[in-house]
Amino acid sequence: MQLEFQFSTPLFLCTIIPPLLILILTRLRNSHVSNPTKLPTSYPIFGSIFIILKNKDRRVQWISEIITSTPNLTFTLHRPFGYRQIFTANAANVQHMLKSHFHNYHKGDTFRTTLQDFLGDGIFNADGENWKFQRQVSSHQFNTKSLRKFVEHVVDKELSDRLIPILKSAAANKTVLDFQDILQRFTFDNICKIAFGYDPAYLLPSLPEAKFAVVFDYALKLISERFNSNIPFIWKIKRALDIGSERDLKISVKEVREFAKQIIREKKQESPIESVDLLSRFLTGGHSDEDFVTDIVISFILAGRDTTSAALTWFFWLIYNHPEIENEIIKEIKESTSSEPVYDEVKNMVYTQASLSESMRLYPPVPLSTKSAVNDDVLPDGTVVRKGTRISYHPYAMGRVEGVWGADWAEFRPGRWLERAEKWSFVGRDPFTYPVFQAGPRVCLGKEMAYLQMKRVVAGVVRQFRVVPVEESLEPVYVSDFTSKMKGGFKVMIEERIDA
Ligand code: HEM
Fold first, then answer.
1. pLDDT at 333 > cutoff 60
2. Angle between the N-to-C axes of helices 244-269 and 290-304, in degrees from 0 to 180, rounded to the nearest 10
3. Going by fewer Cβ within 10 Å, which terminus of the chain is more open, N or C?
4. Model's pTM, two decimal places?
5. Where are the alpha helices (DSSP H) in 242-393?
6. How far is the CA of 381 from the centre of ligand 1 (A)?
7. Pocket of ligand 1, candidates 111, 123, 444, 458: which has the most ligand atoms within 8 Å of its Cβ, to mutate?
8. 170 CB contacts (<8 Å, ≥6 apart)?
9. What is the pLDDT of residue 351?
């Protein structure tokens, strides 16, 4: 038996591999002829690995091109060893997943086990009762009173004490700034104050390396490599052997969690706890288990840090390239604010809100989001979903559907979101056509907070400064881990407006 096996395996491989390779090479050469819909060809065992690898540096754009070339805006990607993932930009499918059949589409085991080491059971990584409980307690952090406090105490302070002085100095000294980095520092300080009541002081003129921010970033980068790995079990083997990126991940996650726990211990010493951050809310509600509150706080930092900074980075690039829109924004800022914009005034800046929404349509901070099917199902467009299949809706592709946005979908045109009678009013789109903040029961908890924060930053910066890209002629490259970024940063010069 043994002998027969040893003899027959190489014989089998010699017989099967060469014809398979010939088939793959021939199909690859002819793919442009036989494949008008851009659907990737799939091969036994290998799936579509070759074309996946070919497009690994432009995954989001590549998937978007395929989705938008299909008649029902949906396709299935075949990864090696039979792993499948459905991608959709079909609004009816999105509504089905996120709302009408919400209970059939969970974060799921793949998502949870991949992120567990970093996020534990935090809201971002939880399903069922645990998710419901965290959502309920956290939602108080986002009521009108808390939002007003956030804008007036946290955002305004960071703006006037840190961001504006840095921009003033850059304008005076003609320094080149990486505006993406500056905005990330801004939102990192903001989110730490909301989540912990802690100020990491990451946005300082010296642009310091705040240890917490650096290890948080590194852990996030490594964990997203797990997600993007084409053969998922490889990271598990590396983790079991404690080698390479998995070893680095273990070390950086430990540092992040230790840091968070230290803050929690200090907070517990406060008596009584009077702060209004999220951590205090859980602690005063009697939920003092250190691991549990650490999980919650880390999820919030992940959800709120790079999202608003990504949105603002692309926004500033777009308005520089559309001076007529920038002028309209300046007009609105001047009309709706006295000298310094406060909560109510910022809230009513509809033209700016439209410009931000339009910017996120083209460059969504979260380009796609993935769920897992609990049971077999059929989507509204007829796509069959097997139990356990991963299914991603794709806001980046959804912002590029001609049938939805018109032939001028590639144009940055805030007017799509506005109606004008005596003055502008904002016309929102249904959240399944524009799921930039997700939709349904798990819609982003921070959506309103994010808009307020972004509008406040826009009002504060645009009123006083012009943000001028150093490389004016080039369109920056959109890249993404969990959240999107401008590849290589956003190098700018700052000009102070004389008529401010
Ligand atoms: C422009 C800014 C933002 C965008 C585009 C955005 C987008 C999203 C998206 C797409 C999700 C769903 C992710 C998924 O489950 O796959 C989400 C969830 C969430 N976001 Fe945001 N977000 C933004 C800002 C914020 C901010 C500032 C906060 C908090 C301060 C926040 C808190 C959350 C939370 C807690 C969840 C999880 C909700 C749940 O699962 O029930 N977000 N966000």
1. yes
2. 110
3. N
4. 0.90
5. 244-269, 278-284, 290-304, 306-321, 323-336, 343-347, 350-362
6. 27
7. 444
8. 177, 493, 494
9. 95
Q: How far is the CA of 1 from the centre of ligand 1 (A)?
A: 58
Query: Whose Cα sits closest to atom 16 in ligand 1?
Result: 369
Question: What percentage of the chain carries pLDDT values higher than 70?
Answer: 90
Residue 18 has pLDDT above 70, yes or no: no
Instruction: Please state, in angstroms and as integers, the Cα–Cα distance from residue 378 to each residue in 67, 387, 389, following that order.
Output: 18, 11, 12
* C-alpha span between 210 and 222 (Å, rounded): 19
392 pairs with which residues across the strands? 87, 370
DSSP of 10-57: HHHHHHHHHHHHHHHHHHHHHHHHH-TT-PPP-BTTTBTHHHHHHTGG
The per-residue pLDDT for range 450-489, each reduced to its tens digit, is 999 999 999 999 999 999 999 877 889 999 988 999 999 9
Burial 41-68 (b: 16+ CB within 10 A, else e): bbbeebbbbbbbeebeeeebbbbbebbb
Å from CA of 124 to ligand 1 middle: 9
Residue owning the nearest CA to atom 36 of ligand 1: 444
Percent of the chain's residues with pLDDT above 90 = 64
pLDDT of 219 over the 80 cut? yes
Give distance in angstroms: CA of 445 to centre of ligand 1.
6
Distance, in Å, from the CA atom of 351 to the CA atom of 141, rounded to the nearest integer, reads 27
Distance 126 CA to ligand 1 centre (A): 14
Q: What is the pLDDT of residues 223-280, one digit of tens each?
A: 988 887 777 788 999 999 999 999 999 999 999 999 889 888 888 887 776 677 888 8
Is 444 assigned to a binding site? yes
| Contact criterion met (CB below 8 Å) for 360 and 436 | yes
- In this prediction, residues 145-152 reach a mean pLDDT of 83
Relative to the CA of 449, which ligand 1 atom is closest?
27
| Residue 497 phi, psi dihedral angles, 5° rounding | -80, 135
Question: Using CA atoms, how far apart are residues 496 and 170, in angstroms rounded to an integer?
Answer: 9
- pLDDT beyond 50 at 6: no
d(C-alpha 196, C-alpha 297), whole Å: 7
Query: Ligand 1 site: residues with CB under 6 angstroms?
Result: 123-124, 135, 191, 194, 300, 303-304, 307-308, 311, 365-366, 369, 436-438, 442, 444-446, 449-450
- Least Cα distance to 213 among 225, 222, 202, 224 occurs for 202
